[in-house]
Design a protein that fits this description.
Elements (H helix, E strand, L loop, with lengths): L3 E5 L17 H12 L7 E4 L5 H5 L4 H10 L6 E2 L5 E2 L3 H20 L5 E4 L21 H11 L6 E5 L6 H7 L5 E8 L15 E6 L5 H19 L3 E6 L16 H18 L4 E5 L5 H16 L2
Parallel strand pairs: 1-2, 1-5, 5-10, 6-7, 6-9, 7-8, 9-10
Antiparallel strand pairs: 3-4
GO molecular function, one term: histone deacetylase activity
Family: Belongs to the histone deacetylase family.
Enzyme class: hydrolase
């Protein structure tokens, strides 16, 4: 059995926020090109991301948010929702695919068809709050997937792990105070979106990292802070908000992580999933804007997932 599903959709490359925007279609092209160059494309089972349903989105987003986004979708040109976050005529469809990828991933993993899945999608999701798009994000893909695992598959404990350089404020907004979800995260601080440090809920384990933090310090946080809480929680599925903008080559942030650090943390999470979660992992792409570093980091991550 191929152990890892790779879920994407060409619609995700049609969302475009302007020629100078870092969250660009080329991000997915870079990942695909590097996978082929490394000879990895034959090791995965490929799936097209379906369109998420309104009902699936509504588990985490307000109806007003969904209606507001649909109304904002332009027929021509680009419409800005805030200075960083914009829609073209393909954005709505791309966002539905990006959230749908997480649904498909959860279904495949829960059916036992694969052990784990990686969703190479955009727009990203972890900044999208219950009632607001922000930070390049429209729907919270990881939250929609987690809510699907809880609601449709009746899991009682899911863990969300977020190692993006930015705090996953949207995911926290969706699940703060929900005992079925443990979210653990590292993020540069102080840094956008300037959240995550003020009295987080009991189920949010937020570890701010200062600018310049390197892989050794990151690994210590994972080993000494994340892992004891995750083991105590005993998750039945692990979902990863896989943002690679903490890489030292990524000018979006100021952390100094390397591909080997992303591979290492993936090994730790795989071991945890094997012990508690029947190997179930769903990983969804978040940030990562230096194209070469992004592609190399994703390949390091999925090599571990697929045991290549």
């Amino acid at each position: 059995m191929t152990s890892t599903a790779f879920i994407t959709h060409r619609d995700c490359q049609l969302h475009d926020m302007g020629s100078y925007h870092p969250e660009a279609p080329e991000r997915l092209n870079a990942i695909n090109d590097h996978m082929i160059a490394q000879g990895l494309d034959s090791y995965f089972v490929y799936h097209d991301a379906p369109l998420v349903t309104f009902q699936q989105l509504h588990r985490v987003h307000t109806a007003a948010h969904l209606e507001r986004l649909k109304r904002a979708s332009p027929e021509l040109g680009i419409v800005h929702l805030d200075p960083d976050t914009a829609m073209n005529r393909h954005t709505w469809q791309a966002a539905l695919r990006a959230a749908g990828a997480g649904i498909k991933a959860v279904d495949l993993v829960m059916a036992g068809e694969v052990e784990n899945a990686f969703c190479a999608v955009r727009p990203p999701g972890h900044h999208a709050e219950r009632a607001a798009a922000m930070g390049f994000c429209f729907f919270n893909n990881i939250a929609v997937a987690a809510a699907h695992a809880l609601g449709a598959h009746h899991l009682s404990r899911v863990a969300i792990v977020d190692f993006d350089v930015h705090h996953g404020n949207g995911t926290e907004d969706c699940f703060k105070g929900d005992p079925r979800v443990l979210m653990v995260g590292t993020f540069q601080h102080p840094f956008y979106p300037y959240s995550g440090t003020e009295h987080p809920a009991f189920n949010m384990l937020n570890v701010p990292l200062s600018r310049g933090t390197d892989g050794e310090e990151f690994r210590n946080v994972v080993s000494d802070i994340w892992m004891p809480r995750l083991r105590e929680f005993q998750p039945e599925m692990i979902l990863i908000s896989a943002g690679f903008d903490g890489h030292y080559e990524d000018e979006m942030g100021g952390l100094k992580l390397l591909e080997k650090d992303y591979a290492w943390v993936t090994v730790q999470l795989k071991q945890l999933a094997e012990e508690f979660a029947q190997k179930r992992i769903v990983s969804i792409l978040e940030g990562g804007y230096s194209l070469s570093a992004l592609a190399r980091s994703v390949v390091a991550h999925i090599r571990v997932l697929a045991e290549i």
